[in-house]
Write a structure and sequence with these properties.
Strands 1, 2, 3, 4, 5, 6 and 7 form a seven-stranded antiparallel β-sheet that branches. The longest helix is centred in the first third of the chain and has 5 residues. The protein is mainly beta. Helices cover 5% and strands 49% of the residues.
């Protein structure tokens, strides 16, 4: 069975990083093929590497590793992923809606998880260029872009994300 990998690489410069996470958490990816006719994509695994602040943290601070990130790939997650979420506030009516793939993280900087079999029915030809957007929940339970820079308050940055898919293709669509 063929494999399709998505590789996000943080391009926010580490020497003088931007605090504009929206600019760097969303990235255009390009496939090695011109396009691929896909019936079904199966997420079989992922690897997420975070980067921590390279220095001394401010007093009383520790690294803030989210418990999961949200991966949005509009070319197929907008219709293939439906999340049922709690309200932002207790007994509230302020629900956060997302079509992103939630990927759990470990409590250290590297998470590798294989043995998954999450299917996405695509039934179309994926174009050569795709978009990936990394997101997370902030302290107010709002969905925001994943942080792409670190700081002395313990903020961590997404460094690399690799998604591994098997896929079925029949015909040329």
């Amino acid at each position: 069975m063929p494999i399709l990998t998505f590789h996000y690489r943080n391009q926010n410069p580490t020497g003088s990083p931007s605090t504009d996470d929206d600019k760097f958490a969303k990235q255009k990816l390009r496939m090695s093929s011109l396009s691929v006719p896909i019936q079904k994509l199966t997420l079989v695994g992922y690897c997420i590497n975070l980067r921590k602040f390279d220095g001394t943290l401010n007093a009383g601070k520790s690294h803030q590793i989210p418990d999961h990130i949200l991966v949005e790939i509009p070319e197929f997650t907008t219709q293939g992923v439906n999340n049922v979420s709690p309200p932002k506030t207790h007994n509230g009516d302020d629900y956060v809606q997302t079509h992103s793939i939630p990927l759990p993280l470990t409590d250290n900087l590297n998470t590798i998880n294989f043995g998954m079999n999450l299917d996405f029915i695509v039934n179309k030809r994926l174009n050569r260029e795709l978009t990936i957007h990394l997101k997370k929940y902030n302290e107010n339970n709002e969905i925001v872009s994943m942080t792409t820079s670190t700081n002395a308050d313990g903020q961590v940055a997404a460094d690399h994300v690799l998604l591994y898919f098997n896929y079925n293709s029949v015909g040329n669509f």
